[in-house]
Amino acid sequence: MDRGQTDRRFRLLLALALTATGYFVSAKLGLRLAFQHPSATPVWPPTGIALAALILFGYRLWPAIFVAAFLANITTAGSVATSFGIAVGNTLEGLIGAALAQKFARGPRAFDRPETIFRWTLVAAMLAPAVSATLGVGALTLGHYADASEFWRIWRTWWLGDAAGALIVAPTLILWADPTPLRWDRRRIAEAVSMTVVLLATSGWVFGVPFRWGVRTYPLPFALPLLAWAGFRLGRRGTSAGVIVLSALAIWGTLEGQGSFAQRDREESLLLLQIFLAVSSATALAVAASVQERKEAEEALALLAAAVESSDDAIIVLSLDGTITRWNKAAEHLYGYSEEEVRGKPVTILIPEDLRQDEVKNFSRLVHGERIDHYETRRRRKNGTLVEVSLTISPVKGRDGRIVAASKTSRDVTERKHAQEEIIRLKEDLERRVEERTARLRTAIGELESFTYTVAHDLRAPLRGIHQFCDLLLEEKSQLLDDEAKQWLRNVTDGARRMDGLIEGLLAYSRIGREEISITTIDPALLVEEILATMKREIEERKATIEVAPDFPRVRGNRLLLTQALTNLISNAIKFVPPGRLPVVRISFASLDRSVRITIEDNGIGIDPRHRDRLFRIFERLHPRDEFPGTGIGLAIVKKAVEQMGGTVDFGPADGLGCRFFVDLPAAEQEDVRAPGR
Amino acid sequence: VEDNPNDVFFIEKALRKLAPQVDLEFAADGDAAVDFLTRSRPSHVLLDLKLPRKTGLEVLEWIRGREELVGLPVVILTSSNELSDSRRSHDLGVDSYRVKPVSYSELVHLLQKVLAIWGLLPPLDSAPSTQASRT
């Protein structure tokens, strides 16, 4: 068993014990005032204790009430059976009263409102005691402890005593059980003290207790102004305490034979007194509750007013004809008019002429109950300047639901507007600059490419001259040259040819960017077939085997560019094979997500992955020229051509020897895929 | 029509060797070519593209617009390997579009083929294939 559970059990036992003790003691005290029948007393605080305990701590406390009621009665008069019957009646009274109060009178909050106080009176103080009285007196009658002819007289005493308990004791207990501190200031305490003094003095005057002075037969109603005072000034708890004190003094005085109720027999006097006290208690509590209610409403209203006043948003209340009726500080700040200046004026003083028509429209929407949210417009300040505002206009409804006014909340959005405009301006500026730069870049690229073209082109003419003059020397003047001179001339022509190759490569490379390309659907299988046909001599010379997978899915691309790229890749695959090995090239495909991958696999010397970065760069060579001839442009062209078609190129090692090149191109099925051609 | 003296020298040399019976006239720029063609009508034209004053394409266009020169066979011999140039030339109706080779023997071979196309020499076998390269 954990601590919490122990704690809860202990508290339950404590509540049971306290309730039982309180019930028993007050019952015994009450029964001492029973004159007509030992078990029926006009003063019965236990009903109040039972109701308060069951409402505050729950219905599970009923055994305490049952046991205490049984013991109090068995020790007073009657048999076990009659005491049992009475105890059942008292317990039921508490349970029924508490349940009805929970259902109809908001339970422990019954004394917050006049309305629920009257409901409490009806269910807890009139209905529930009838159960107790009927069962109790019935038990006594059946047990022959009371005469049947006396039934209604005893019943009435019983019922009235219980009702007084429910109206005087229960409210006090329930109200004082509220843990909220009283928070009385010095003046309030002084008031309570002086009221107690006046109460005691009045009591001495009216009831002769606690001290006797003046005339003995002044009527009790003199005490009424005191209760009214308590109700208005001391709150519900102060009032209930006053009622308890007054009741105690009144009962005491009446028992002493004093006061206006001290007539006839003592039982009769006490009954009348109880009726009077019960009614007074209910009335005083109702007064206290309405004062409290009003105070709370006023506080809420003041809070709301303060919130409105301190709001950063300008809040204006308009009557339905568009006249300003209220105007908060923020409105004063925003528009420059003080509340005195604008109250009673038409709201149009704030609206620029050209926008008045909009206001009329807004107002007609409003009258139909519509709310206008964050309506951005302009308003004119007192000093004539315009201000950008965001308006929220909502109808203000009266209690009956009719629209009685309009509330207009406006927020200065000038800064935000400016910020927005600034953002738009900056964005446009940025876009313009990006466009300018792109254009400049494009021009620069274009210039560079035409420069490359011109230079490369013009270099070829002198090169041809060098080569061809050497050719002529070797052919027509060979008799003038010794073998060494001839070899040197051949070196010159070799160099010239290599240089021509480089220039041609450079031109081919720059051409890819220069020439406009059209993207069409291509069947790579047919294209590969054509390429292999043009490469026939090279393939035969190197005794290469080319294996082509049977069907290729169609791709989107440019015929010439793809031809160039695949030619270079196949040519490389055949070329970069160590001496003594016969080249085997496999060309295959794979369908990827939206593209087609063409794979060219060789059994050559392979490529170290470390060279990935250099591989596709122009004029890069991984091998000395005397091992594998070439210009170092082929793969640069492949990359540029494939990228021009919106594809990518990559490589990796082959399963066995050699390497694989991958060309990924958009698949032909994808209608929306377009290569960025120029 | 050729502006480069070296090219003129080698072309003349090769043509005289291949077909000694052929009469040759050289024009060094586009205007000179137009002048010459206004005065006389040759049987064939070998035309460079990159020329001073009028370009080869302009000369070709001029030829194609001239009634007196209808059906004049023209072969382009240029250093430009540009697709746009060859396309334009073909559009204007050339017999052949040839790129100038680097060596003399290749030039001789090429001109031999041109003369064969024009029916001035018997036909030859196919030309050598293009070379591809790798880094």
Largest sheet data of chain A: 5 strands, antiparallel
- Low-pLDDT segments of chain A: 670-678
Shape of chain A: elongated
Instruction: Give the end-to-end Cα distance of chain A, rounded to a whole number of Å.
Output: 84 Å
Order of helices and strands of chain B: HHEHEHEH
Structural class, from secondary structure content of chain A?
Answer: alpha+beta
Low-confidence spans of chain B: 126-135
Order of neighbouring strands in the sheet with most strands of chain A: 2-1-5-4-3
Give the radius of gyration of chain B: 15 Å
The averaged pLDDT of chain B comes out at 84
Helical region count of chain B? 5
Give the overall shape of chain B, derived from the CA principal axes.
globular
Name the helicity range of chain A.
Answer: 55-70%
Key attributes of the depicted protein:
heterodimer, A: 678 residues, alpha+beta, 5-stranded mixed sheet, 12 strands, B: 135 residues, mainly alpha, globular, disordered C terminus
Quick take:
The complex is a heterodimer of chains A (678) and B (135). By secondary structure, chain A is α+β, with helices and mostly antiparallel strands. Helices cover 59% and strands 12% of the residues of chain A.
